[in-house]
Amino acid sequence: MFLLATIIILSYLVGSIPTSIIITKIAKGIDIREHGSGNAGGTNVIRVLGWKQGLLVIILDALKGAFAVVVIARLHYGGLPFQNVSPFDDFTLVQIIAGISAVVGHIWTVFAGFRGGKGIATALGMLIMIVTVDMLVAVGIFVLVVMISRYVSLGSILAAASVPLTLIFRENILHDNIQSYNTLLPFVVAVSLLVIFTHRKNVIRLLNGTENKLSFKKKK
Questions:
Q1: Is residue 220 situated within a structural domain?
Q2: Is 159 in contact with 118 (CB distance < 8 Å)?
Q3: Domain that holds residue 12
Q4: Residue 53's pLDDT band (cuts 50, 70, 90)
Q5: Is 53 a domain residue?
Q6: pLDDT digits (tens, 9 = 90+) for 88-128
Q7: Could you tell me if residue 218 is inside a domain?
Q8: What total number of domains does the chain contain?
Q9: Distance (Å, rounded) from C-alpha 33 to C-alpha 36?
């Protein structure tokens, strides 16, 4: 139990690293949460400082999720402190637990008053290590929606929703026979719902027509 708790705590702490706050403090001496949309995420950094810093934040946030899944989860050895009734092997289940812990850390970071980002990039880094094909589809949808609408929030919401839908399509229409599908699907649905929940205010602004659009103009 102690080892699993250590993995959860370490993953949470890695996810909690406030990359957007750190980058904007270094680049411009500001707290990103006091500018733009007020969100501590890569999109707001792009809006306030430009693509260079924003993409750096997004990449670093995604690496947090990937690091938890690929590196921290490997601290696990031996059996689990509970009966594993899922079709996943013990290590894959630990990877899922570590990845979710990192996403939770990003959203509710202990290093910045529990006011973090919305978890999109960190969830991307986690899920691309577990459901690669479905995440690549989600990335394509995100890019397409943002390029057409210039609403990053809309792209994020639709991309998150597309992951479980892609799983369902591949398993039931294409008959890909995805390993551990019956357990993987509710897990992916839960993560997608968490990401959509963090965008609830964006949904209201989208419905009201007050959501900020992303500008592709270069920052001066």
A1: no
A2: no
A3: 2-208
A4: very high
A5: yes
A6: 677 888 888 999 999 999 999 999 999 998 888 998 899 88
A7: no
A8: 1
A9: 8
